[in-house]
Design brief:
This protein is α+β, with helices and mostly antiparallel strands. The protein is built from two helices and four strands, in the order βαβββα. It has a two-stranded antiparallel ribbon. Strands 3-4 form a two-stranded antiparallel ribbon.
C-alpha cells in the first residue's frame, strides 16, 4: 500500500491533495537493467497500479520502463546537441 503523505508537498495543490485517497494499492516490480546498455544502476524497483500480473507481466513492465528510459535519454541528448548528432 502506498500511503498519502501526512504533509502536502509544496508542488501539489491543496485541492489535489485533498482529493487523494488515504492509501492506494500498488504492485512493486523489481527490474534488472543491463549496465552495458547505459544504465548507472542495475536493479530498479517500480511501483504500478496494475496489480494483476496476468494483465501486464513483470517482464513486460520492465521492458516498457527500460524502453521509455532509452527514449528519454535520446530526447535529452538531442535537446542538448540537436538531432543532427543521432
Amino acid at each position: 500500500m502506498l500511503e498519502k503523505p501526512r504533509i502536502r508537498p509544496k508542488w501539489l495543490s491543496l485541492s489535489a491533495y485533498d482529493q487523494m485517497p488515504e492509501s492506494m494499492p500498488v504492485r512493486i516490480i523489481k527490474v534488472v537493467a543491463d549496465p552495458g546498455a547505459g544504465y548507472r544502476t542495475t536493479e530498479l524497483h517500480l511501483a504500478s497500479t496494475v496489480l494483476d500480473p496476468t494483465e501486464v507481466s513483470t517482464a513486460e513492465m520492465g521492458d516498457i520502463y527500460l524502453s521509455r528510459w532509452q527514449v528519454e535519454r535520446k530526447r535529452s541528448i538531442f535537446g542538448h546537441f540537436g538531432p543532427e548528432h543521432k
